[in-house]
Amino acid sequence: MAEFSTYYSPQILLLTLSASLVAIALSFSSSVPGLRWITKKFSKTKNAANKAVRALPGSWYLSQEMYELERRAIFSKKWLLTTHQIRLPNPGDWLRYQVAGFDFVIAKDRTGTINAFHNVCRHRAFPVVTKDEGNNSILACKYHNWSYSLNGKLTKAPSYQDIEGFDKSQNGLFPIHVHIDTNGFIWVNLEAAEKPTTAWVDDYQNIDKQDRFKAYNFDGYQFDHTWQMEGEYNWKLLGDNYNECYHCPTTHPDIPTVADLSNYGVVTENAYVQHLGRPTPEQIARGFNVAATFYFPNASMNVS
User: Fold this and answer.
1) What would the pLDDT profile of 7-32 be if each residue is shown by its tens digit?
2) Positive or negative torsion for Cα 257, 235, 239, 88
3) Where in the chain is the domain with CATH 2.102.10.10?
4) From CA 94, how far away is CA 48, in angstroms rounded?
5) pLDDT tens, residue by residue, 255-292
6) For residue 260, with 0-12 CB atoms within 10 Å meaning exposed, 13-18 middle and 19 or more buried, which class applies?
7) CA 124, CA 119: separation in Å to the nearest integer?
8) CATH fold group of domain 80-189
9) Are 22 and 273 spatial neighbours (Cβ–Cβ below 8 Å)?
10) Is the pTM of this model over 0.85?
């Protein structure tokens, strides 16, 4: 199992594993009561004759104001696919992520529970970890040595902890909601509310149980490596590119060896897009049985 992370600017943002105009438009329309009929109508006609669809305005890819709105309305509220639990095999293991300018840590504590919290010390807002990954019994800020357990609780605050009225239990790292799906993939939701506005099942119910996944044993995978690419483009362009195969015959002439482009299709539901390559029996016999899914807003996953 490998992870692909893409960094891009001017709005630096992390795409784990792999950002469609359709998915974005459906997400926005689904959140506005008066526009929900668009989603329903699209679902009924997505397999009908091809129809022209107007792209998002160009300014949406360049505007800093739009990006800040997206950070608040999308990346702070939606469930983000990050990694798989095999990345955290041992108590004390932790991983650092940066998504849309939000810096956070995913860690396995000594009880085996996987937690997530913002990478911001409660004292002077210095990052608690400065590397990409590691294994520690505690996480100690390098500024004033405030220390936290891997469940985010404050364990030591030199001098402060002796001040009358100082409550360590109220000064732990800011927690992040975590969901681990049936296949062991780790999702986070950055919304500060005690309960996210959007439950994981609202956007992704049974996506981890799709029939295509029956061909794979996720417990049998081992983590192999991760790699990164950096480019100057807006995050939505990744989704645009991943979710359309109009470019496939020209840009990826080898795709017919692993998928039947004449029978290629997609299923767009809630906050995900399933790509159905429909490989032939001969291709499956050769090992080319790829299950590709896009998870709005930040990730795509190809399983083979």
Assistant:
1) 333 333 333 333 333 333 333 333 43
2) positive
3) 80-189
4) 47
5) 888 788 888 889 998 999 999 988 888 888 887 888 99
6) middle
7) 12
8) Rieske Iron-sulfur Protein (2.102.10)
9) yes
10) no
